[in-house]
Amino acid sequence: MTDPVLEVRGVSKSFGALIASNDINLDLYPGEIHALIGPNGAGKSTLIKQISGGLRPDSGRVHFAGRDVTDLSTAARARLGMGRTFQISSLAMDYTVLQNAVLGALGHRGDVFRFFRPAMTDPELLDRARDSLETVGLEEFHAVRTSELSHGQRRQLEVAVALTLSPKVFLMDEPMAGLGGEGSHRLMGFLDGLRSQAPILLVEHDMDAVFALADRISVLVYGEIIATGTVGEIRENPEVRSAYLGEEDA
Amino acid sequence: MRRETILNFSLLGLLFLFPLWAWVADEPFLITLATRAVIFAIAGVGLNLALGFGGLVSFGHALFFGLGGYAMGILAHHAQTYVPMFTWPFVIEGTTSMPIIWLTAIAVSALVALGVGALSLRTSGVYFIMITLAFAQMFYYFAISWSAYGGEDGLSIYVRNEFPGLNTMDPIQFYAICYVILLVMLFFVFRLSRSSFGLMLGAARQNEDRVQALGQVPYRMYLTAFVISGAITGLAGALFADLNRFVSPVMFDWHTSGEIMIFVILGGVGRVLGPVAGAALFILLEHSLGGVSDYWHIYLGAILLGVVLFARGGLFGLIAGREVAHD
Fold it and tell me: Tell me, what DSSP letter sits at residue A131?
């Protein structure tokens, strides 16, 4: 088997007496969608932040693309190829949809310290931005101010911006939260194809989506990963059923 | 044409025609008034880069205004007393050449902005406001106590500095210099606001997480904006000192920081020509209300309150509406 693109090794984090992450091991291989599930407050977002760079683990290491990135900033990790989408849409709300996408293309190209040439007429940036908007189906809204988009459209734009970065992995924090049935169905189809481009670490509440999409699933409960396995294994795992799925079913 | 564009050109046209009329009508005082407005506008254009585009509420831009002023004062002082500034390790003489003074003002302001910004930008919000204020006040008290350059009394220069081919003592010619510099600065800021840097800076103002997720560091964007902002305001300070042929610690005072901020807020935060409208309105009010009462600042305060409460976008917001996203 090939080496994992992303490896989390023995990561722990506590806030006072609360243990948010307890000796967590997790890996992401090329071509897969690895879903991270768990009840509210299990520490999913805390873990994602430690992987993407917003939080420093108390102990343990994060390896990405063959190097130890534990001491790197969020920006440095992003430059190495971590494409993140946020749980709560995190976009430049005063900008248009196209401007947000161009922003991503600009981040990808990396030459932000240019003071004179207009960014919004740069064909290279525009091509990349339009491509990704088209991929998520937002191209007709390119001139709309982002603050005027619907919730679902903002989620789509989050994904589009991540696409412009051509990342090595996608870290997606509940990309389907708040989407309607139709919207989440579309996004699922899209994510399904995306895994061949770059593997996805998917934090998601929508169980149907997780079972339909994921190659592997890790279950996080009270800061601990109680099981990792294929969809079938996780469905059958008695510990998972009692700790998590049981509650969902009831 | 968009309303903002029309407003932009009317403002610039007005600032072109009004002094011309004053010149024909032989009203040198009105030309000087217009020169003040233009120089204040340049200072505001500088602050607007940090405040409007970067969202950095600097309450210490008098620091750069004063540095520019003292760059002019000190260089010209040495030139008129024929005493070199330094004799070791090499001799640096004073100068009365405006271009050299401007470059010095820009360089010194940029350098100080780099230091002040590097420290201040580790904070944000109210703390950033307070720390920038503190830095400016530090320079204010330093200038007061530096008796070699006049201390509290400031420095007077007998003759305005020189610009090749022009008679700078002629009000309309000095006005022309300031007006052209304003145009150059506006063009620069206009281009910058639409450049890669401007786009990313605006994104950092709106959402730092987003910028980090794109692999960029907001701190660097802010610091760069702060340095350019300080340099432009410094240049305005050099011009202001030359206009008055006088520089004093008052240029460093927090009142001055407040006034520069008022130009930006009155005109419209984050609009390229906002500070031009704000500075013009400020001078207009100062001139018309100053005659009514010595306490004209009360009226200014009331107007400012009105702008903040009812016309967030300042004059530009009122007349040209919300900023249109530019593609």
Answer: H
pLDDT digits (tens, 9 = 90+) for A193-203: 899 899 999 99
Q: Are A160 and A47 found together in one domain?
A: no
Place of tokens 């005109």: B267
Per residue in B163-176, pLDDT (tens digit) is 999 999 999 999 99
Query: Which pTM does this prediction carry?
Result: 0.93
Q: Domain end: A165, A190, A210, which one?
A: A165
pLDDT confidence band for A247 (50 / 70 / 90)? low
Identify whether residues A120 and A183 lie together within a single domain: no
Establish if A16 touches chain B: CB-CB under 8 angstroms.
no
Nearest CA in chain A to B216: A75
Of B194, B196, B212, the CB nearest to A111: B196
Same domain? For A143 and A159 the reply is yes
**Whether the predicted pLDDT of B91 surpasses 60:** yes
Are A30 and A19 members of one domain? yes
For residue A239, the surrounding DSSP H or E stretch is helix A238-240
Same domain, yes or no: A156 and A179: no
Residue-wise pLDDT tens digits, A19-71: 999 999 999 999 999 999 988 888 998 999 999 998 999 999 999 988 999 99
| A86 within a domain of the structure (yes/no) | no
pLDDT over threshold 60, residue A248: no
> What is the CA angle B219-B223-B227, rounded to 5?
175
Which amino acid, A30? P
Which of B200, B212, B223 is the mutation pick for testing A, counting most A CBs within 10 A? Answer: B212
The greatest distance separating any two alpha carbons of chain B, rounded to the nearest whole angstrom, comes to 60
ipTM for the whole complex? 0.90
- Is the Cβ pair B200, A103 closer than 8 Å? yes
State the smallest CA–CA distance between residue A246 and chain B in angstroms.
36
The predicted-structure confidence for B27-41, as pLDDT tens digits, reads as follows 999 999 999 999 999
- Which helix (H) or strand (E) segment holds residue A210: the answer is helix A207-213
Q: Is residue A155 domain-shared with residue A102, that is, in the same domain? A: yes
> Any residues with CB less than 8 A from the CB of B5 and at least 6 apart, and which?
none
CATH topology of domain B3-320: ABC transporter involved in vitamin B12 uptake, BtuC (1.10.3470)
Evaluate if residue A87 carries a pLDDT over 80.
Answer: yes
Confidence at residue B291, expressed as pLDDT on a 0 to 100 scale:
79
Cβ–Cβ contact A116 with B under 8 A: yes
Q: Tell me the mean pLDDT in the region B138-157.
A: 94
**Helix/strand/coil for A22:** strand
Which SS3 state, helix, strand or coil, does residue A105 take? helix
Six token digits for residue B215? 């692999």
Cβ–Cβ contact A69 with B under 8 A: no
The pLDDT score that the predictor gives to residue B89 is: 82
Distance from CA of A148 to the nearest CA of B (A): 13
